[in-house]
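so my prof wants the structure for this chain in the tokens format not the other one, which i didnt know existed until like an hour ago. anyway here's the sequence
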Amino acid sequence: MVPLEEEETITEDLQRLTNIKVEILSDNNYLPLSMHLDQFVQYPIQDTLQVDKIYMINLLRRPERRNRMHKIFKELEIRAETIDAVDGSTLSLEDLKTLEIEIMPEYIDPYHNRPMTMGEIGCFLSHYIVWNKVVKNGFKNIIVLEDDVRFEPFFNQKVNYILKELENLQLKWDLIYLGRKRLTENAEPWISGSKYLVRASYSYWTLGYILSASGAKKLLDAMPLKQLIPVDEYLPILSDVHPRDDWKVYYPNRNLIMLSAHPLLIYPTHYTGEQGYVSDTENSTIAFNDQNIDKPEREDL
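here's what i got, hopefully its the right format
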């Protein structure tokens, strides 16, 4: 630890220690604690960072990610509910029919030149479940997190700064990215009077975001299961920043007010091509429908 300055307190020192522990857990699911010292360690009471609920989405077959996130939540004093993600590897054609899912006919992945995968369908449905919980429970706002994220230092405080700005500036908003992959070089205008928020341009990833009641309603009212595309394409379409006009015609009400934290508060634990990188959406079976005569066999991930 860096020695404290004269005006700094032990509380600030403890926060720096927490940052170090969270960073260790970002790379490793193991943070050793001697059994002889365990009895002396006390963790503060966890809370939801001034939002109604925090959800963490995780596949049951990824217990190592679940355990790592639970350890991080303990360090960050975050109370989160774990959502068992919809596993695309277990979905069948009959499941898609039962759920009345129809894939957008024109959709082709712009980077891999392939149709939508079953993993991407599972990912979308996992977020869709959370959006429904917002409406069903009458929540004002929530935070959604995926299980493969790295938190910036002082994450809690930075989230609180954003929430205070939203309240003080009385901003209208539906969704705020906490982590994302920005896909355009266009300038993103700052929100008037804000130090931490910009208007989000075309972006990928749903690593973490704050969602309001109005945002959840808009995401559901658009009936996305009738013209399904990956969730990180869906959000830019509904906020009318997507470059594909032929996809946007399927969603005439594109009025989602989408902002982003700047700088971001969450990043992936691993990037494509790095050692340890695993994608349950990209590396999965291609989705099929009634028009596919030769259906691909399901692959084990």
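also thought this was worth mentioning. Residues 270 and 286 are 23 Å apart (CA to CA).
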